[in-house]
């Protein structure tokens, strides 16, 4: 097992399904933050078998709406002085702004770059969202 030093202050995104860590890293633009970031892949886990973990030093403002859409197993721990001081709940968001695009090709959000897509949760089990602009239902499907 690779030993990785605990971070003093920052965020640990834990219980990421194995294989999704790099994808989340890219989706949340963690490489652009300018903070030290560690991505651990295929770490043995009692709950998941294998999991990925992301540790971000000196940064706590992660997009939990995005994480909730990616996986309900994900946990977000806020670290201060090497201890977990807060666990941020990750849940499927009721409202989503700009994280994915509308499935309707004629929707204004797909033709006008200045209109940020806005969706309201339609069905949590299938991750189906209704578009604010055209009322088309889009299912969030990560590849
Ligand atoms: Zn739409």
Describe the structure.
The protein is built from three helices and nine strands, in the order βαββαβββαβββ. By secondary structure, it is mainly β. The protein has two domains: 10-88, Alpha-Beta Plaits (2-Layer Sandwich), CATH 3.30.70.140; 95-139, SH3 type barrels, CATH 2.30.30.20. The mean pLDDT is 91. The structure holds zinc ion. Residues 102, 104, 107, 109, 131, 133-134, 136 line the site of zinc ion.
Which properties best describe this structure?
4-stranded antiparallel sheet, single chain, SH3 type barrels, 143 residues, mainly beta, 5-stranded antiparallel sheet, 38% strand
Summarize the structure.
This protein has three helices and nine strands, in the order E-H-E-E-H-E-E-E-H-E-E-E.
What is the CATH topology classification name of the largest domain? Alpha-Beta Plaits
Radius of gyration: 17 Å
Strand order, biggest sheet?
2-3-1-4-5
Helix content: 10-25%
* Secondary-structure class: mainly beta
Return residue spans where pLDDT drops below 50 for at least 5 consecutive residues.
none
Number of strands: 9
CATH architecture of the largest domain: 2-Layer Sandwich
Cofactors and ligands? zinc ion
Task: Give the amount of beta strand, in percent.
Answer: 35-45%
Biggest sheet features: 5 strands, antiparallel
Mean pLDDT reading: 91
Shape, please? Answer: elongated
Number of domains: 2
State the CATH superfamily name of the largest domain.
Aspartate carbamoyltransferase regulatory subunit, N-terminal domain
End-to-end gap: 29 Å
